[in-house]
Design a protein that fits this description.
Length: 214
């Protein structure tokens, strides 16, 4: 039995949570221009991976930003399991997107989110990832700053351990999506199963919270 309105709001990171941006960039951009690279996606143990790739941070960001603005990024598909979950269970939560893309790519990211998840995600929020030469108003420097100001998020889903730890310090329940560059213990399927279970049982016990919030 499902609670029609769980009363909870989920903030979703976009890249590497709703989509597979790093994999797409690595396999369709980096590997094509560096066919001699011996690194595989599953070996990307750091994010950003510039040191692993033997390039500067500026080179990596230029390549990634170029991909973000490409047709390949615009037509990138959502992770199928996530989209399927939204179609079945998305109505039981309120949702917002919270991303840290550079300002120059924000319109592409927002359009992508609204195109694929707009039936459920009704607002798009940006903490701009800084880029050299950009001067913009500095409202929030981190996702933690935004979450503190917004004050209405119950659950943050992100692939960045620092964002997860920061949100947890605000009393927000967190789920770290497992990726090669983090220590997430839950598979994507387990993450989605937890969200479904939370609909059935809104008062999740502390033990289950601890298992998920790691």
């Amino acid at each position: 039995m499902f609670v029609q309105d769980s009363g909870k709001t989920i903030a979703w990171d976009v890249d590497d949570v709703l989509n597979d941006l790093m994999r797409a960039w690595f396999e369709h951009c980096w590997m094509r221009s560096h066919p001699d690279c011996s690194l595989g996606y599953d070996q990307i143990s750091e994010n950003p991976p510039d040191a692993l790739l033997g390039i500067s941070s500026a080179e990596y960001l230029a390549s990634l930003d170029g991909f973000r603005l490409s047709e390949s990024a615009r037509t990138m598909l959502p992770i199928p399991e996530v989209l399927a979950w939204f179609r079945q269970y998305g109505k039981y939560y309120r949702h917002l997107a919270l991303t840290a893309v550079p300002l120059r790519a924000a319109s592409v990211s927002a359009a992508w989110v609204m195109r694929h998840f707009g039936s459920w995600i009704r607002s798009f929020h940006l903490v701009p990832s800084p880029r050299q030469g950009e001067r913009i108003p500095d409202y929030d420097q981190t996702k933690k700053d935004f979450l503190r100001w917004w004050g209405k998020v119950d659950i943050l889903i992100d692939d960045n351990p620092a964002n997860v730890a920061a949100a947890r310090s605000l009393g927000i329940q967190t789920i770290l999506v497992s990726r090669p560059w983090n220590q997430g213990k839950r598979t994507l399927a387990q993450t989605l199963d937890f969200l479904t279970e939370l609909i059935r049982h809104p008062t999740v016990n502390d033990k289950l919270k601890e298992e998920v919030d790691t």
